[in-house]
Amino acid sequence: MDELKNRKKNLIMFPLGTVGRDMMYYLFTSCIITFVLFTRRLTGAQFAAITAIVVAARIFDALNDPIMGNIIERTRTRWGKFKPWLVIGIVASCIVVYLAFNTDLQGWSFVWFFGIIYFLYSIAYTMHDISYWGMVPSLSSDADARNMFTSRATLCAGIGGTLASVLIPMFTVGENAIGGSAKTAYGIIALTVCIIAPLFLCFTIFGVRENRNYTDAPPISFKKIISTIGGNKQLLWISVIFLLQQIGNGFIIGGIGSTYIYFDFGYDGGLVSLFSIIGMLPTAFLMIFYPTISRKVNRKPLMKQMLIISLVGYAILLAAGLFLPSTMLKFWVIVVGYMLSNFGQYCYYLVMMISIMNTVEYNEHTTGERDEAIIASMRPFITKMSSALIVLVTNASYLIFGVTKYTNQISDFENNCQMGIISEAEKLDAISGIIGSVNGGQVLGLLLCMAILPCALMVISYLLYKKHYILDEDEYARICKEIEAKKAAV
């Protein structure tokens, strides 16, 4: 009875903890380049340097995840092994994120500052991210319960990320920008998010009781990290599959989507907010009902159905972009295409999350050790590796298609408005003229990046999952029964 009561409490407190964290994650990872583009005048060399910094930092961040997982595995305190790192990580992240969006530096001074801040963020956010998701296997090994913890946590993460994706563009770009300029708006929003994030994480820190049935403190060991990951074939396969899926899934929300909307439909953050919120709406359905769906439809058949839905969505998005004039009709058709494609992609994300977590029991079955934090670290590791590649492709696309030529001009007007040199109305009129000068070939290039690449990578990830991932529902149940039988026999 106590166990059931504890689980019910955990199912409320654990998911709530990530709402603010994901608002912070969206602000820094998805908005930082937009912030830079619209508040800084950058030469090609400076923008290339920023791109290199982001890619290098995210690769470093990804490589740091298993190391952080190993550190957490050996942490022993009266508060457990996860919660101390939740506290340290969220406090450090708030300091770094606030500083990132509240600086007046320009040129190469800003580039150096940006490099330091980005690497500090990579370290700080990893501390609480690995700790948070590493708790999931320690909350329950029951398949249905784990589905509920994962889906509810992703629901709350989705709420935080969606709120951020709707409100941040709306209040930073266009006539609704807080303080009349993007620079002022981002500074205020960063402060707000840095207050909200730790408050929500208190639900997890003070309200969750995880399984602490561990007594030993294994030493930090690179050999252990390599042997755990390299020796788990199912973890390796799902990591490759998840990486491909995440790269494809992140192209639109990673910056290309908002830039395309600005260039094709005007400098209006409200349109980007509409694009985001409606495109994300179907994911709320999955966040709530995925545990029910997973009990009725096995993962591989479900993935096939979701693939078909996404392919239809990408086809609609591409056709609208190619053949319809730049009117609100075209905008709404593109939104519908994005909504369908995102529905399938998000279901894939949930499947991948569960698939990674289930390799904990596979690891225990084959080696006798669970290594929860190390295995759980692969999810953010993959997410960050994919984000590094997304940034590389996105920023390369900006350089190829000449996006910075226009954003530099926009940045000048934003800064002049912030300094009071021109009025907000004059700023908006000038930026409208800049947007109007963007040629069709540049917009088409962004459209192709949004539709073709994600579609191809989703197909490849499905084929690899179907062929190489063996931990379906029946196999996972069999492994869990054998583990329990071994424990009972001791």
Order of helices and strands: HHHHHHHHHHHHHHHHHHH
Regarding quaternary structure, what we see is single chain
**Cα distance spanning the termini:** 25 Å
Described by the principal axes of the CA atoms, the overall outline is globular
What percent of the residues sit in helical stretches (DSSP H or I)?
Answer: over 70%
Largest sheet report: none
| Overall radius of gyration | 23 Å
Q: How many DSSP helices?
A: 19
Mean pLDDT over all positions: 85
Low-pLDDT segments, ≥5 res: none
Q: Which structural class do the helices and strands define? A: mainly alpha
Give a description of the structure.
This protein is an all-alpha fold. Helices cover 84% and strands 0% of the residues. It contains 19 helices and no strands. The protein has helices spanning 2-16, 19-39, 44-74, 83-100, 107-134, 136-139, 143-172, 182-207, 222-230, 233-265, 269-296, 299-323, 328-367, 372-376, 378-400, 403-418, 424-436, 440-468, 473-489. The model has no long low-confidence stretch (mean pLDDT 85).
Characteristics:
490 residues, mainly alpha
Fold topology:
Layout: H1 2-16, H2 19-39, H3 44-74, H4 83-100, H5 107-134, H6 136-139, H7 143-172, H8 182-207, H9 222-230, H10 233-265, H11 269-296, H12 299-323, H13 328-367, H14 372-376, H15 378-400, H16 403-418, H17 424-436, H18 440-468, H19 473-489
Could you give a short description of this structure?
The protein has 490 residues and is mainly α. It contains 19 helices and no strands. The chain starts with a helix and ends with a helix.
